[in-house]
Specification:
582 residues; Beta-Lactamase; Alpha-Beta Plaits; TIM Barrel
C-alpha cells in the first residue's frame, strides 16, 4: 500500500467548500473591518433576521445576543471579534440568541480564530457558532430533576435554599415584606410506615403534600427535605398575625384524619418557625433556626408551634457554649431543685416530693430541664449533675424529716439517667450519698424511664436488685410513652409505676384511653405495683382517677413544682390539716 501524499489545500477547494457549506456549525468569515465576507448555510438559517445582531447595536433589528450570566445584551464585535482580529484564539463563549420572533432563546457556543496572510498579518477572522440548546435543555432538566423530590415532586433542599435566597434578596423591594421558614416533620412517621407498610406511608405523604399545597397561596413554596420532613417558604404573609393564621390553618388541616387504603391514620405535627425582614439573612440559618424552634415545640405538651428566638439557639457554637456554661453552673451552684408534691389521691395528703432540677441562669433566669438535660445527656454532664441532684434531694429530705416528724413516711423521688447506671460504682455512689446525708434507703425512690431497661438490661437488673436490697424503691417513669409493655415489668424489681400524663390528658375526651388506663392500673395492681398518676390538672382528671384503683397522684391541680421554701410551706400546711384543698 503506497503512502498517501498530502495535496496542497488549493487543490481541494471543492471539498473544503462542501465541508464549509454543510457544516453543522454556523461559520462566518469576517474581513479586517469586521465586514462579513462569507457565511455558510447553517449561519444563514441561524441568523434568520440577518447578521446585524452580531456587530451592530443600532441596526433597528430586535434580535439580541445576551450574556447568560448577566442577562445583558452583548455584541459579538466587542466580546470576541475585536480580540480575534488582534490575534487571539477564543474558545467556547456561551451566549443566548434571542430572536425577536421566537419565545425560545437559542443557546450558542461561539469560538473564533484569526487567519494570517503570507506576511503574518491578520487578514480574516473566522467565527464558528454551535447551537447547544439541546445539550443545555438536557442539563437544565437534569438540574431540575436533581432539585426535585421524586415521590412528591416538591423542591428538594438545594432548590429550597435557592428559593429562600431569592426571597431574602427581594425583601427590600416591598416595605413590611417578610420571609418565613416553617419547618415540621410527621411525628411517629417511622412507626406508621413500619405498621402499615411503605406504600401506605408514601400514600400518607402524598395526601399530606396535597393538604399542605391547599394551604398555600401565591409564591409560597413547600419543599420536602427528608423522609417525613417538610419546609414551607412563606412570603405571602404581611404580618406575624397573618403568618400564624396560616400556620394554625395548616395544623388544623393536617390534624384531620387521612384515609389511605381503608386505613384511617391520624398524625401530629409540631411546627418551628423563623422569620426575617432583613436582606442580610442567611437561608441556612433560617432553616436551622426553624428546626431548633420545632424541637422546642416538641418538648412542649401544649404548644403546637414555636417561633424561633435567640434563647433557643443550639447550633454547634451555641451548644458548646451551653456545655461550658452548664459545667460552670454545676460547679458554682446555679442548679436548683424544685419539688412537686406527690399526694394520696383519696385524702390529698402529701406523702413525698419529686425533685426536679432547674438552672438558675444568671442572665436568662430559671431554665427548664427540657432545655438543658438533652445537652447534659449528650455531653455526659448528666452524671455529675445527676449525683448532685441525688445528694441535694437527700439533704433537703433530711431537713424536712427533722422538721416534720409527724410525716413519718415522707420520701423524695429522684430522676436518674441511664448514664448514671453505666459505671461500675453506681450502687456505691447511691450508698455513699445516703449515708453521708443520713437518709435511709426506704425514703428514697429512684425514677427511671423504660429506655434505661432496654439499654443495658443485663447489668442493670443486678444494680437495681442491689439498690432494692438497700430498701430503695424503684419507679418506672413516664410509663406509656415508650415500649409500654407490662409483660417485661415483672422481670425488673419495680415498686411503682408512674403513668405518663398523656394518659390522663386524653382520658378526658377519649373513652378508649380511659379504658386503657383502667386496664394498666389493674395490671399494675396485679403485679403488686403502686401507681402514681402524673399530670393531674383538672377536677375532671381527679374525679376519673378516684374511680380507678390508683392511690397516688401528682399534677398542677395539687401543686406545680415549687422552690424549696414554697414546698416547705405547703408541707407545713399539709401536716397541719392533713389535707390539700385543690
Ligand atoms: P418527669 O420526671 O416526668 O417529671 C414530671 C414533669 O411533668 C415535670 O416537668 C413537671 O413539672 C411536669 N408536670 C407535673 N405535673 C404536671 C401537670 O399537671 N401538667 C403538666 N403539663 N406537666 C406537669 P419538668 O420539671 O419540666 O421536668 C421535665 C423532665 O425533665 C422530667 O420529667 C425528667 O424527665 C427530667 N428531669 C427533671 N429533673 C431531672 C433530674 O434531676 N435528672 C434527670 N435525669 N432528669 C430530670
Ligand atoms: Mg420523673
Ligand atoms: Mg414522668
Amino acid at each position: 500500500m503506497s503512502l498517501h501524499q498530502p495535496q496542497p489545500l488549493e487543490n481541494c477547494l471543492e471539498a473544503i467548500r462542501y465541508f464549509f457549506q454543510n457544516s453543522e456549525d454556523a461559520v462566518i468569515v469576517f474581513g479586517q473591518n469586521y465586514q462579513i465576507l462569507t457565511t455558510n448555510i447553517r449561519a444563514q438559517a441561524l441568523f434568520i433576521n440577518g447578521f446585524d445582531v452580531l456587530t451592530n447595536s443600532d441596526s433597528g433589528v430586535a434580535d439580541q445576543l445576551v450574556d447568560p450570566e448577566t442577562s445583558c445584551p452583548v455584541l459579538l464585535l466587542e466580546l470576541l471579534l475585536q480580540r480575534v482580529m488582534a490575534g487571539e484564539v477564543v474558545n467556547d463563549v456561551e451566549l443566548l440568541l434571542n430572536l425577536s420572533d421566537s419565545a425560545q432563546d437559542i443557546w450558542l457556543s461561539v469560538s473564533g480564530f484569526p487567519i494570517t496572510n503570507d506576511q503574518d498579518q491578520i487578514e480574516n477572522g473566522v467565527v464558528i457558532i454551535r447551537d447547544i440548546s439541546d445539550r443545555r435543555s438536557q442539563i437544565a432538566q437534569q438540574l431540575q430533576e436533581a432539585q426535585r423530590d421524586l415521590l412528591t415532586g416538591l423542591p428538594n433542599r438545594s432548590l429550597l435554599v435557592e428559593k429562600i435566597s431569592q426571597a431574602i434578596a427581594q425583601l427590600d423591594r416591598a416595605p413590611g415584606a417578610m420571609v418565613a421558614v416553617i419547618y415540621f416533620d410527621v411525628e411517629r412517621f417511622k412507626a406508621i410506615s413500619d405498621t402499615f407498610g411503605h406504600i401506605v406511608g408514601n400514600g400518607l405523604l402524598l395526601q399530606l403534600v396535597n393538604r399542605i399545597q391547599a394551604c398555600l397561596v401565591q409564591d409560597d413554596l413547600a419543599a420536602r427535605i427528608g423522609r417525613d420532613e417538610f419546609v414551607i417558604l412563606l412570603t405571602s404573609a404581611q404580618s406575624q398575625e397573618q403568618l400564624l393564621a396560616i400556620v394554625e390553618h395548616l395544623i388544623a388541616e393536617l390534624s384531620k384524619p387521612f384515609t389511605i387504603d381503608d386505613h384511617e391514620i391520624s398524625i401530629r405535627v409540631k411546627i418551628g418557625i423563623d422569620l426575617s425582614q432583613s436582606t442580610n439573612s442567611d437561608p441556612e440559618d433560617l432553616m436551622a433556626n426553624a428546626g431548633t424552634a420545632m424541637s422546642q415545640a416538641k418538648q412542649s405538651s401544649s404548644e403546637q408551634y414555636c417561633i424561633f428566638n435567640q434563647d433557643m439557639r443550639l447550633g454547634n457554637g451555641e451548644s458548646l457554649r451551653l456545655e461550658l456554661d452548664l459545667r460552670r453552673a454545676i460547679r458554682t451552684g446555679e442548679m436548683v431543685l424544685h419539688y412537686q408534691p406527690i399526694v394520696i389521691i383519696k385524702s390529698r395528703e402529701i406523702v413525698g416530693f419529686e425533685a426536679l432540677v432547674r438552672w438558675n441562669h444568671p442572665v436568662r433566669g430559671l431554665l427548664s430541664p427540657n432545655y438543658f438535660i438533652p445537652i447534659a445527656e449528650e455531653t455526659g454532664l448528666i452524671i455529675p449533675l445527676g449525683w448532685w441532684v441525688l445528694r441535694e434531694s437527700c439533704r433537703q429530705l433530711r431537713l424536712w424529716r427533722n422538721r416534720f416528724p409527724q410525716n413519718s413516711k415522707l420520701f423524695v423521688s429522684v430522676n436518674m439517667s441511664s448514664q448514671q447506671f453505666a459505671p461500675d460504682d453506681t450502687v456505691e455512689m447511691v450508698q455513699t450519698i445516703l449515708q453521708e446525708e443520713g437518709i435511709e434507703g426506704k425514703y428514697l425512690k429512684i425514677e427511671i424511664t423504660e429506655g434505661v431497661l432496654i439499654a443495658h438490661s443485663e447489668s442493670i437488673i443486678k444494680k437495681l436488685g442491689q439498690l432494692r436490697e438497700m430498701g430503695i424503691q424503684l419507679s418506672i417513669d413516664d410509663f406509656g410513652t415508650g415500649y409500654s409493655s407490662l409483660s417485661y415489668l415483672h422481670q425488673f424489681p419495680f415498686d411503682t409505676l408512674k403513668l405518663d400524663r398523656s394518659f390522663i390528658e386524653g382520658a378526658d375526651s377519649d373513652y378508649e384511653k380511659l379504658e386503657i388506663m383502667q386496664s394498666v392500673v389493674r395490671l399494675a395492681w396485679n403485679l403488686g405495683l403502686e401507681v402514681v398518676a402524673e399530670g393531674i390538672e383538672t377536677q375532671k382528671h381527679y374525679a376519673q382517677l378516684r374511680g380507678l384503683r390508683c392511690e397516688l397522684g401528682q399534677g398542677y391541680l395539687f401543686s406545680r413544682p415549687l422552690a424549696q421554701a414554697a414546698a416547705e410551706d405547703l408541707l407545713l400546711q399539709s401536716v397541719n390539716d392533713n389535707l390539700l384543698n385543690p
